[in-house]
Amino acid sequence: MELPVSPSVPGASSLRSTGGGEGDDVNVKMDSGAYGAAKAGGSFDLERFLKQPQVIVRAVCMLFAVIVFSCIIGEGYVNRPESTELHCIFNGNEDACRYGTAIGVLAFLASVFFFVVDVYFPQISNATDRKYLVIADMVFSAFWTFLWFVGFCFLTNQWAATSPKAVLVGADSARAAISFSFFSIFSWDLEKQYSPSRWSHRLNAEEVIKAHVQVGTEGNIDLMLSQVRKSILFIQKQYTFNRGIYLCGHSAGAHLASMVLLTDWVEHEVIPNIKGSFLVSGIYDLEPIVYTYINDILQMTMEDAQRNSPMFCQKEVQSQMTSTCELIIAVGQHDSPEFLQQSLDYFQALRLHGWRVSFLEISNVDHFDIIEKMIQNEYILTQVILKTILQ
User: Fold this and answer.
1) Predicted structure pTM score
2) How many Å apart are CA 247 and CA 241, to the nearest integer?
3) Are 1 and 17 in contact (CB under 8 A)?
4) DSSP 237-271
5) β-strand 245-250 against 326-332: which pairing, if any?
6) Any idea which residues carry the catalytic annotation?
7) Fewer beta carbons below 10 Å: N end or C end of the chain?
């Protein structure tokens, strides 16, 4: 059926939806702002957790803090030869002992608290909560780095002014407290560098391009599909209780996303929680490519093309996601006739097989700017995708 498009959303020439039930209406009015992160929930891997550099540094901070306040509490108070009254070993300055004990105890308690946060951090679903915890960790670590520096200077100064005759026992403990106050400056500065936001390895541009080129030049369609499926399985296993996985592909990427949806996940013993897929100016029938220069790299046979064409697989595979996954097939008004026709044909094929699918032809865009304009908040495709995810 044809659905009207709000006049306030320019660029959409038609929007068709099928499938029945809630979710068929596409209302492109939405609010802007930050949204909660999808809830994570992968099984806890103790070995992997303990190998995190930030966890190791936090354990070191805890150890140093215990040493400092234990040394002061245990042997930091001594009596003079002529008196039985206890006084602080650091030149008799009670403030020095209190300061060293206080920052040591509080550093230990804070380390325990943030250690617990580290354990439960992957389970926290709210993006705002995550942000505040990371900021709190970094600010506290920076502040305590400063306090340890002050403590080191304070204790060192008072120890230098202490008369050796006034110290009968506890000299080694005093030196240990000073030494580990100094070490704590660097351990807490390292802790600031290893906030939870820095856990993951980030690929630089060269690494990303190299990985992509390797697949494109050395791989084939079957290998590419296998890698995409493995990535989806990894996400589902890592974050078992996610609220939904959404795929978006453009051109050849739309082909890969389509084939992922048609996967027989029962064979993999895990069914990903894919809630939606956005297929933009995609290729759904690979047969025409066999006779083009593009196939000089892919080296596809006609059998390969048919096996990996969503149009043909649709007839053979009954996906487990037919009723739960919402699809949007988008194509540009000025796309080539082949892309326009394949998009429409695939939309009709999906509708025939019971998928919840919408067709969106976007005015005044071609094969390239249909995806490039997604950086614009008011762009019709951006709004439709966000609305689908947030509904």
Assistant:
1) 0.52
2) 17
3) yes
4) HHTTT-S-EEEEEETHHHHHHHHHHT--GGGGT--
5) unpaired
6) 251, 335, 367
7) N
> Which residue, chain included where needed, has tokens 């580290």?
118
One DSSP character per residue, 32-94 reads -S--PPPP--PPP-HHHHHT-HHHHHHHHHHHHHHHHHHHHHHHSEEE-TT---EEETTTT-H
Q: What angle do CA 337, 342, 348 make, to 5 degrees?
A: 130
Amino acid at 340: L
222/341 Cα distance (integer angstroms): 25
pLDDT tens for the chain, residues 1 to 391: 333 333 334 444 445 444 443 333 333 333 333 222 333 444 567 787 888 888 888 999 999 999 999 999 988 888 776 667 888 889 888 999 999 999 999 999 999 999 888 888 777 766 677 778 888 888 999 999 999 999 999 999 999 988 877 777 788 889 999 999 999 999 998 887 776 544 444 555 666 556 555 555 556 788 888 888 888 988 888 888 788 899 999 999 999 999 999 888 888 888 899 999 999 999 999 999 998 888 888 888 999 999 999 998 865 555 567 778 899 999 999 999 999 999 999 999 999 888 899 999 999 999 999 999 999 999 999 999 999 998 8
Number of neighbouring beta carbons within 10 Å of residue 107 = 26
Look at residues 104, 283, 297, 89 and name the one whose alpha carbon lies nearest to residue 175: 89
Helix (H, G, I), strand (E, B) or coil at 30: coil
Sequence letter at residue 280: V
| Packing angle, helices 53-75 and 94-120, rounded to 10 | 150
Distant-in-sequence, close-in-space partners of 100: CB < 8 Å, separation ≥ 6: 68, 69, 72, 76, 90, 151, 154, 155, 177, 181
Tokens at 50, concatenated: 């303990």
Tell me which DSSP letter residue 288 carries.
G
